[in-house]
Amino acid sequence: MSPAAIDSVEPAYSYSLGGPNGREAHLRGARIHVRPVAGLSRESIARSLECHQARVTLGLEKPRSGDPYALPGGWLSIAVDSEGDAFVVVVQTNDHGDANRLLERAQLFAAARDNK
Predict the structure, then answer these.
(1) Based on C-alpha coordinates, what's the Rg of the chain?
(2) CB 68 within 8 A of CB 32
(3) Looking at the predicted structure, is the pLDDT value of residue 25 above 60?
(4) Contact (CB, 8 A) for 16 and 26
(5) Which of 39, 59, 83, 114 is most buried, most CB within 10 Å of its CB?
(6) Domain range enclosing 90
């Protein structure tokens, strides 16, 4: 998924019992909203991103600057959902520090589309 395919990025949260409202939000990563890509399904996008992460982790592929689909020193959970006629790529980690880095990387990666 190149930056050109990205519409927007927002934080991804999980919720647990606790806090003053009964639910406590925990930052987990990023929700990356992408435009529909001709001929690709949510399954094929997820598989492609998972394979990309594995190749980067194994050193077989260099990540792009700020790549939100692979995080040095960590393994990410990647899921793709349909949203209307587009997709949402949800990239998450259980480590709070990595979740912040991941969200920043996704925002910078998406901003690259505006610099072209």
Answers:
(1) 14
(2) yes
(3) yes
(4) yes
(5) 83
(6) 3-115
